[in-house]
Amino acid sequence: MGVPRRAGDPAELRKSLKPLLEKRRRARINASLRQLKGLILPLLGRESSHYSKLEKADILEMTVRFLRELPASYRAAPMTRGALRAGQPSPPLLGSPIQCFHL
């Protein structure tokens, strides 16, 4: 038989918070996927109403395919933080996927 745990035991607290944290994490993922779907479908020339039940994997695959098929001139155009702050016109996309996350 196990040793009884105290009410304030950190292990018990983690155990009770885990489902709540997981629910929040899934909600964030789903919200981001909805936004991505709303962005990618118009770029692909598809109407959202016909694609209301896309699976998460489908949304991600469509996005990857779209990004891979971009002309090299769009992918290679560098963008700097300074240009964004100064309000200067910027290229449509950043030079590399990593730069997308460093704005």
Automatic annotation (TrEMBL):
Signal peptide: none annotated. It is found in: Nucleus. GO terms for molecular function: DNA binding; protein dimerization activity. GO terms for cellular component: nucleus. Residues 13-70 form the BHLH domain. It comes from the Eukaryota. Pfam families: HLH (PF00010). This is BHLH domain-containing protein. It comes from Canis lupus dingo (dingo).
